[in-house]
Amino acid sequence: MRTKSSQKREALLEATLNLVNNNGFHAAPMSKIAKLAGVSPATIYLYFKSKQDLINQLYINSKIAFTEEAFVNYHESMPVKKGFELIWFNIANYKIKQTCASSFLAQCETTPMIDSKIREEALEYFKPLLQLWERGQQEEIIKPIASHILYANAIYPLTFLLSSHKRGDFILDQEQLKIAFKAAWDSIKL
Amino acid sequence: MRTKSSQKREALLEATLNLVNNNGFHAAPMSKIAKLAGVSPATIYLYFKSKQDLINQLYINSKIAFTEEAFVNYHESMPVKKGFELIWFNIANYKIKQTCASSFLAQCETTPMIDSKIREEALEYFKPLLQLWERGQQEEIIKPIASHILYANAIYPLTFLLSSHKRGDFILDQEQLKIAFKAAWDSIKL
Amino acid sequence: MRTKSSQKREALLEATLNLVNNNGFHAAPMSKIAKLAGVSPATIYLYFKSKQDLINQLYINSKIAFTEEAFVNYHESMPVKKGFELIWFNIANYKIKQTCASSFLAQCETTPMIDSKIREEALEYFKPLLQLWERGQQEEIIKPIASHILYANAIYPLTFLLSSHKRGDFILDQEQLKIAFKAAWDSIKL
Amino acid sequence: MRTKSSQKREALLEATLNLVNNNGFHAAPMSKIAKLAGVSPATIYLYFKSKQDLINQLYINSKIAFTEEAFVNYHESMPVKKGFELIWFNIANYKIKQTCASSFLAQCETTPMIDSKIREEALEYFKPLLQLWERGQQEEIIKPIASHILYANAIYPLTFLLSSHKRGDFILDQEQLKIAFKAAWDSIKL
DNA sequence: CATGAATGAGCTTTCATTCAT
DNA sequence: TATGAATGAAAGCTCATTCAT
User: Could you tell me the pTM of the whole model?
Assistant: First the structure.
């Protein structure tokens, strides 16, 4: 008896990621996903309940991978600015390295395709950043404003820069990153 | 004067906008668009070459409407900060009023569905803002950095705030708008 | 503009009837039905909401055709035995002539495939026979027993005879019919 | 003594019976049958050649169980009417007790799914009843007519009554049974 | 003997688009 | 210009059956 291999699951998720990224959701039919992953269409349904489930899982997976990278080397004991800088560059570098995953995530944020329950689930993983900001606010380093505004101005701009970078309109090298970081920090620091 | 024909065109564009917005691209079949616009499916093809063309036109249309609003009451003779403030609030208020149109545009920015040629065409309309920034840089009011970074930090955050607002996670009233503007301005001012 | 032809509807119903009859429900895929009716699979859905709907409609259609034939030349003023004899032979001859339709109906009676709501709807058409039996009971010609038992003994046996006939096990000619009628009548007469 | 294996065979047959009965042939996939019987889908093929074979076996099995019950306590030495009465009530009571099995058999009689070879095989088991009728005809108690007609009028009506009973349209209690028996007997007695 | 994974073929249904009027 | 009917192609998904252990 064969056992379900997580390898196949991964292959399916990756195939989906690539297809969705190159041509959009509507151009990622199950048949193509199967072919790209090297399995039969029917096999997909051993690993995922439906196409929607596959997309949801891919979203969660990507989000987890993303947040894991975001907090590499970070520790709560760090000074606020140092901590933020670390996280910010972690995110930026992840986006640059994992163009595919991150532009998939960008698509997910604006599409009504992802179930809102799944979206909320993914939010949880970002808590350390929110806690860092709260600490910064207590220490009067960060502006005492809503975390949504902090996120919009400090982190979200990276999404735009990355998509410009991917399209080739703008080259986001380490120098530009530093400049962008300065702008981000200026927007939230007291 | 609006002819009968152009009325139908408008109706089709609006129907598409509503459908895409409520359920995503994949839930906006031509038959539903036709029904919602009160015409026959065949009629769509008298006004648009294909579904892709319809989407493209809708994108361009929305972008034009958006930029028109962005520059209402703006004149090149305005002081830089005043001008930016005007444009920023124009954009913000447009997004709040026209949730549908603006979240459609947000979807378009991240989806590979829009032809890149069309996307470039739409960029043109934003020139006055870029020119304002250039002026601000000459007057040493605005940071001397790439316009992509300026845009990412000063304008793009609104997209995030708006989608949070639409989802009900965060209420973007006039008070919050002022706070958000301050953050935006801090990120780009010298 | 073309108009929906009831011809096509009929063709689809007949195609379904033939396929179901020769090979059972499970061997009547929409694609074959379409081919046999000379239309595209998609066209079926212009005339029927779903496969279930197609089957339901076919059942209703067949049942109506059947009952219409059952009461040809019958009038309430007829003497009870004459009336019953007429109806009984109408039914028998219809079954013999329309083997296909009637063995389809036989299948429907025993299968859980037909929605019970539809089944009840079809029952209505049989009322004149029940009324005849009531009259017969008042005149003390027919046994004063439940109509279900009357039906089971007087009419239902024909279903068995017909399916034997169809299979070739037993030839149901006019002579045998007369014998069978006698048995039916003996079972319900006082 | 029942071996482990034959237990599994029984479980599979019963699972199939239940599924087919509740939802029809088309809603009894092998995977569900396996699950309900508590075995792997692959295991089914150790006991049955194919799904068709499984259905055939189930039909034969049910038919044998049915006929065994039909002739309980019956002996060729009995007087004709007594014998018939015994058999008739045996059948009726079996149908009432074993609703599932008997409505499965009813489905089988009208469906083209059962191989005709298998159907003939099952006929064999009914011989004692036919012999009883022959005896009755020699003794001039039973009408000298084809056995198919005898069966159609004396036994087959029970199928209708049972399905009405199962649907809840008509309650078939012991009183009604007696009435129905009278009708059956009247139809075949000389 | 028994299994859960795996699958190719086929299912019902929908879609963007064209036809005939 | 405008239509509703019509459609080939393809979508998501399921099924009876086989594979590998």
Answer: 0.91
